[in-house]
Fold this protein.
Amino acid sequence: MWRKILIVDDEREFGTTLAERLLLRNFDAKALEDVEKAMIDIRQSPPDVVLLDLRMPGGFGMNTIRAIKEISPKTKIVVITGHGGEQNLKEAFEKGADAFMMKPVDIEELLSKIRELQ
Amino acid sequence: MSDLTLQDARFRFYGKVMALCTHELRNHLAIIRESAGLIEDALEFNRGQKLDLSKPLQNIDRQAVRSTNFLKVMSSFCHRLDCEVSSFLLTELLDELLILINRYLNQREIEVVKNYPTKDMKLKNNPAIIQFVLFCFVERLSDKSVVELTLSEGGQSCCIQLKTNLPFKDISQETPSVTPEILTEACRLTGIDLDLKKDVIELTIKKSKEEG
């Protein structure tokens, strides 16, 4: 089972709380609010899974998907966003996202999605 | 595209704003859900250990307040459509729109510097169309713009000025749903006199419709 999960979301409370919940489930999880910091982190220590918000200041998630895949092709990307829309979903998968979930998420559903990707 | 009417463009505007609002509220709810989940987890996983539930409880409370404030603004925005013409305070009208589209501005790294007069301006006009016209120009701001939003009052009119450090984007390419004809029609209905320059846009609203 994959263990290393990076959450990239500009809603700090969301990221840190989800990370805490994943830690309680024995995942090596951490949250970052900044895309640039996240890219450095991924380069230094590629996670198994990135939970990525789609729309963030300083780097739209869509471009970030491709950038993550270039740095770490094996890392799976689960897009978690409050911004819905068919177009977004389609574009996210085209750019390389592996799964897509709308906020708010159910943690069991999220874990099940991650298991499916393994 | 030439068949599009002002009404079509306004529907799209409301669609965009509502999508931004749902995005915002989904984020509040996501934090509430995770915080409630963390409390549940703490009870389940940390039995016997010292539990600090204050943080998730504070999160829930903060997000409830955040949502309540946001919904208040959203409700006011929606009720602008109740009457075609109504009395309103100009700064309130502009702030309402800016709050609702704040996420959009952040995503595009657009900074709005407000330069409001101390005395607010009360107008009687079509507030919904004024917000629509303003949003049309916000959409045309370049990413990473710093825009100065200045309100001023003359003898017979008041003026909304948007001055940006980066040039406005081409109207036809970026927002094809809002043609120059549609903007002209929106301005005609509200008595807005539009002055477009490379980096400054001025919307002068005649005071003839001002409430006495």
Observations:
- Chain B has a mean pLDDT of 89.
